[in-house]
Structures are given as structure tokens and as C-alpha cells.
Design a protein that fits this description.
- This protein has one domain (3-108): Alpha-Beta Complex (Aspartate Aminotransferase, domain 1), CATH 3.90.1150.30.
- The chain is 37% helix and 19% strand.
- The protein has 4 helices and 6 strands, in the order H-E-E-E-E-H-E-E-H-H.
- Helix 1 (3-15) packs across helix 3 (92-106).
- It starts with a helix and ends in a 5-residue tail after the last helix.
């Protein structure tokens, strides 16, 4: 999968979440996704990685289970964020679930409730 195709898939997943916006992080130009001006997903400048927030223990479990696909990112890794390499085979259903979990950790409760009340996507 090319970098542009991966970026398009990530954008589609992120922008389907209630009140999500695409806004670069700091001086970076790579797409980053926010809810309520808080980051829940960021892509690497080279388009080959995705970083997302995870709950307690998830980072360790993902990295231990498949270190070729998942890694502890610089700077935010100490806060439980996880990196996913997009230039290796990824399970896009799993990535979508991980992005949604990150969103749930960041989003206001009213938006999480809205997310829970929406019909499942096919």
C-alpha cells in the first residue's frame, strides 16, 4: 500500500468520528487529527507511520505481540501512545479500532455517547 493510499484510509477513519478535524501539529505538515483541539491520531512526516493514544497496557501488548508493526514512538511513547508502521502489512480493521479507541480516550463524554449511539458501519 502506498503512502497516499494509507493517508487516505487514515483520513477516512478519523474524519468519520464525531467532530473530528484535521489540523497539523505544531510546525509539522503531516495530517493530524483532533477532537476538541486535542490530538487523537498523528501521521509521520514521511507518511509511513501513525501514532495514536492507547489505554494502560495496550502499548506494551501491541509492541510485544508484533514489533514489526507496532513501536513506542519518540516523545509521546512515555505517555502511552503507540506507533504503527504503515509500510508493512497492516490490518485496517484493527487500525480503525485502535484509532477509535484513541478518540474515545480524548473526546468529551457527549461525543463518546454519540459514537456509541450511531449504527455500526458495514
Amino acid at each position: 500500500m502506498g503512502d497516499e493510499e494509507a493517508a487516505a484510509r487514515i483520513r477516512e477513519i478519523c474524519m468519520s468520528l464525531p467532530e473530528a478535524v484535521e489540523k497539523p501539529f505544531g510546525g509539522h505538515t503531516a495530517p493530524s487529527y483532533r477532537v476538541g483541539d486535542k490530538l487523537f491520531a498523528m501521521t509521520g512526516e514521511d507518511g509511513r507511520s501513525l501514532t495514536f493514544k492507547a489505554g494502560p497496557g495496550v502499548q506494551e501488548a501491541l509492541v510485544a505481540s508484533d514489533p514489526e508493526r507496532f513501536f513506542v514512538p519518540k516523545y509521546v511513547g512515555r505517555n502511552g501512545w503507540v506507533g504503527a508502521r504503515l509500510d508493512v502489512g497492516q490490518d485496517w480493521d484493527e487500525i480503525a479500532g485502535l484509532i477509535e479507541d484513541s478518540y474515545r480516550l480524548i473526546a468529551p463524554k457527549r461525543l463518546v455517547r454519540l459514537l456509541d449511539g450511531r449504527p455500526p458501519t458495514p
